[in-house]
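The methods section describes the discrete structure representation at length, but only in general terms. An entry of this sort, consisting of the sequence and the corresponding backbone structure tokens, reads as follows.
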Amino acid sequence: MSDYSDIQVEIEDPTCVIRLNRPDKLNAFTYHTLKEIRTAIDSAATDPRVVGIIITGNGRGFCAGLDAQVLASVTAGDVDVTSERASDAELPGIFSYLLEVPKPIIAAINGVAAGGGLILALMSDLRIASREASFTTIFLKRGLISEHGSSWLLPRLVGTGRALDLLWTSDRIDAETAADIGLVEKLTDADKLIDTAKGYVRRLAESAAPLAIAATKRLVYRHLGMGYVEALKEADVVQNEFVAAPDATEGAHALLEKRTPRFKRVGETGD
């Protein structure tokens, strides 16, 4: 935790909790914040103690997006935003790399998720929201478009018409509405939010093979852009690989012996 200034990181097998820690700014991020988040995610992705990664915010907000002063510098041309990407081969967008992390990313949304903060929630694999959370796209009110992959992800979650409505109007919606339209998967009371997210990861750690979780995540996102013929062929290849792998043997033995399976974790030696 002492290695970071804008975030806090807590690892307790099988979870890694990353807390955005600029509560006086509703956890709005600077480029330094983004680098710290990326460092923490990369570290957790290779840590065998971690089955799932939870991202949340300290204070009243989940994340209000890009800090206003940084946004002013960007729009004035004082910051070269293209230089913030790790490499030209990487997907564009501030949190697009989360789609390729081989572990579940859960956004535990405790308060407002706006602009880039909404992107952080969208690019996470699951969204668990406090009933006190709220959501707004905000981009068009700033003279911007639906940025950082939101035009690709949001329609897939809520449908085309609802996505356009949210993007065009920048209306702020509450957690109940977000759940009703499919923007979040689970709702919980504020005081149970982190425990709910941790409980979900613990459930995965006890019952699902981490290597299979990683492969399934990869296939789901890849197949969003494929026709069914190519997707089914690829799934068949990966399926056959896993049938012949040690985790499948372990899963079968655990079933026969009526015990909890002991699957290999992502990051363990020999991956």
